[in-house]
Design goal:
Helix content: 25-40%
Strand content: 15-25%
Distance between the termini: 61 Å
Number of helices: 18
Length: 701
């Protein structure tokens, strides 16, 4: 009746506790013995199952600007809404450490009527007396609020936060956990990892020590000391700020001034704090007068200023997939492969000019494959097409909606080679948009088809792309009717022209101004006629962009400021991108690229974490190089095998010598040991290491 079940999970493998809300006694305990994985959402290893899917869907929502419903949009694409709930609430809650309290399930009750969904996070609840909203971060806090709130009134106000990406993965309202596809706690972690990996900026802080001139103290007592004049040579400017009222930014750093000696400051850095007059405490400062006063009143030979910098991490560009990925014909998310690896597939054969491509699977063609364009730029586009195809197209449950460029195409075993050849041939072709129009085509007397075809303006672009592809693969599409072939996307087949024209009239408004963004070409294959999945490899148009270069540069610059980047956003973004990249390289067995990535991390003094170390060893193991996995484990952890005994050595040899001319803002030494620390391997690292040693035949180790 009036009881809302609230389940608190303490850790991934903790216990679940069911408690009555609004009075009553505890109903009992039950062990949480099962954790659902995302096994049926695409996959491979546990790492990929959740994070790869979350990353695909997050890219989709990021591209479309989110699909938030009514409510206040937050800065990170989430939305907040409020709901008045009454008994029975009909919600099951779960507390996720460091994340908050989430809705685990929605059953019959006021929550379902209010539109609450699985994956929504409770941000705040109304106070017992008055109209204030109090923030909630723990399950106990929510329980206490509900119990006290329902004693005095029949309804209670909740503020929820909804993450559309998370909802798209776990959005499921039912109390039966066995029916849920996704473990909520794992999905929350995966979505946050995906969000972190693709973010373009981060905010970091660092400190700079400025000496106080002793020979000319009058300079400190009179005038503006931060107008660019010596001795500091630092020009600060105060700007209005919508959130904090004002902010102070670095406008210019003059050569020869004490502020320029460190080489740390750049235009746009913001001053956020200054050292107190006596002692080492840092006090927040948002005005130019406040900063100047702090410097003038400082009792000591120097003063420390704290700066804030918006770091440009560069965009994590989507690339061609480096392996086969399987998806259902109707599963849109399955065709959004993650990318970002700055390497290509190692091609075993190349094409020159108009010569035929030779190699495994490339010298013949088959009708079981095609080179196509998919309408994957928008969920609305995909849904508009599928809503028609599922009723009228016989192929709707066999193939995704696609616009064929070449069919027949090369055999599936040649897809990886073909993708590299295509990428090389199409580097100068920039992404473009195709405008589509409806058209009928009489296939024979009892089959009239309804197509979406490029309009007169877009057709030359498609034909040019098709011609370039056929120059590379002249054996494909080599049928007598090929020259008259019109690239098209099939919506349905009908027995008469009247039926086809009727459908065109019904959907004309839906496809008015319909566009498809062409950023990738898809190599599609169905392994056999009875298969329910489609294999695909994706090739990106244009030149690949190095996704890590900008992040490496910014990281290195910040390291030179003396900032501790062990647990910062910049470090986290960089390592998450590298984790995915090394996993992708391992799929394609590209050992050289893996080695290069590790060298770049070491050269940039990036402190590798256990997750990356584990992914590195897995990638090398999958590439057939367990010997290199052992070598990197010993090098990065300083744990070595000496006469059959594994020992931890002192010191670090994992990183090259730090440049002698590097400067730090706090005046401390610039030795490598002051910047990097050996990796402290976790249980997963040691587990992978045992697999590596077993594969290498080193049973005694």
């Amino acid at each position: 009746g009036g009881v809302a079940t609230v389940r608190g999970v303490l850790g991934m493998w903790g216990r679940s506790v069911a408690r009555p809300v609004g009075g009553g006694q505890r109903q009992g305990r039950s062990s949480l013995l099962r954790v659902s994985m995302i096994g049926n959402l695409g996959g491979g290893s546990d790492y990929e199952e959740a994070e790869d899917v979350a990353d695909r869907i997050f890219r989709k929502y990021k591209k479309e600007g989110g699909e938030n419903g009514e409510g206040e949009d937050t800065a990170d694409g989430k939305s907040c809404y409020e709901a008045m709930l009454y008994k029975p609430l009909g919600i099951t809650l779960i507390e996720v450490p460091k994340c908050g309290v989430y809705v685990q399930a929605v059953t019959e009750g006021s929550a379902r009527e209010a539109g609450v969904k699985r994956g929504d996070r409770i941000v705040a609840t109304s106070s017992t007396v008055g109209g204030q909203m109090w923030e909630k971060n723990s399950l106990d806090g929510v329980l206490a609020a509900v119990q006290s709130g329902t004693l005095l009134g029949k309804t209670m106000r909740f503020r929820f936060e909804r993450d559309d990406v998370l909802t798209s993965i776990v959005g499921f309202n039912d109390s039966d956990e066995e029916m849920s596809r996704v473990d909520l706690q794992r999905a929350i972690s995966s979505v946050e990892v995906a969000r972190l990996r693709v973010q373009n900026t981060a905010t970091e802080t660092f400190e700079l020590t400025l000496p106080i001139p002793g020979r000319d103290m009058r300079k400190l007592l009179q005038g503006d000391i931060f107008n660019g004049d010596m001795p500091y040579g630092l020009h600060l400017v105060q700007f209005p700020d919508d959130k904090q009222g004002t902010r102070v930014e670095v406008f210019e750093v003059q050569e020869g001034g004490t502020a320029a000696q460190s080489g740390l400051l750049r235009k746009g850095d913001r001053v956020i704090a200054a050292q107190s007059g006596i002692g080492d405490m840092m006090w927040p400062k948002r005005t130019l007068d406040g900063i100047s006063t702090a410097v003038r009143t400082r009792m000591g030979p120097s003063v420390r200023l704290k700066f804030e910098r918006t770091v440009d991490l560069g965009s994590w560009e989507e690339e061609g997939s480096l392996d086969f990925l399987e998806s259902g014909p109707e599963d849109m998310a399955g065709y959004f492969t993650t990318g970002g690896a700055a390497v290509g597939v190692a091609s075993r054969s190349r094409a020159a000019g108009g010569e035929s491509v030779t190699g495994a699977g490339l010298n013949s063609s088959t009708l079981a494959t095609s080179l196509s364009i998919l309408p994957s730029s928008s969920k609305r586009n995909w849904a508009a097409i599928q809503d028609v195809r599922k009723f009228h197209d016989r192929q709707a449950r066999l193939w995704p909606p696609h616009l064929s460029l070449l069919k027949p195409f090369v055999r599936a075993e040649g897809f990886l080679d073909a993708s590299q050849v295509l990428h090389d041939a199409l580097q100068e072709v920039d992404p473009f948009t195709v405008k589509m129009k409806l058209q009928t085509f009489e296939f024979h007397s009892r089959c009239v088809m309804v197509w979406l075809v490029p309009d007169d303006e877009s057709l030359p672009q498609i034909e040019a792309l098709q011609s370039m592809c056929r120059e590379v693969f002249p054996q494909c599409g080599a049928t007598p009717d090929f020259l008259d072939f019109v690239p098209h996307l099939t919506l349905g087949q009908f027995e008469t022209a009247k039926e086809a024209n009727t459908l065109m009239g019904l959907v004309k408004e839906r496809f008015e101004g319909f566009e498809i963004e062409v950023k990738h070409l898809y190599l599609l294959s169905r392994p056999d006629k009875g298969s329910q999945s489609v294999q695909q490899v994706r090739v990106m148009l244009g030149r690949k962009k190095k996704s890590l270069a900008q992040a490496f540069k910014e990281y290195s610059d910040l390291r030179r400021t003396g900032a501790d980047l062990t647990n910062t956003t910049t470090s986290s973004v960089l390592l998450e991108r590298c984790c995915f990249d090394v996993m992708t390289m391992g799929k394609s067995k590209d050992v050289d690229a893996i080695q290069t990535l590790v060298q770049e991390l070491q050269a940039g003094f990036v402190e590798i974490d256990p997750k990356f170390l584990n992914m590195l060893m897995v990638a090398l193991l999958n590439s057939g190089r367990p010997d290199l996995a052992v070598a990197h484990f010993q090098e990065l952890t300083n744990i070595r095998n000496e006469d059959g005994v594994w020992v931890l050595e002192e010191g670090s040899e994992a990183y090259p010598e730090w440049p002698a001319d590097a400067k730090r803002g706090d005046g401390r030494s610039n030795t490598p040991s002051s910047f990097v620390r050996p990796v402290e391997p976790n249980v997963q690292c040691f587990t992978t290491m045992m697999k590596v040693l077993g594969r290498a035949g080193r049973v005694e180790d």
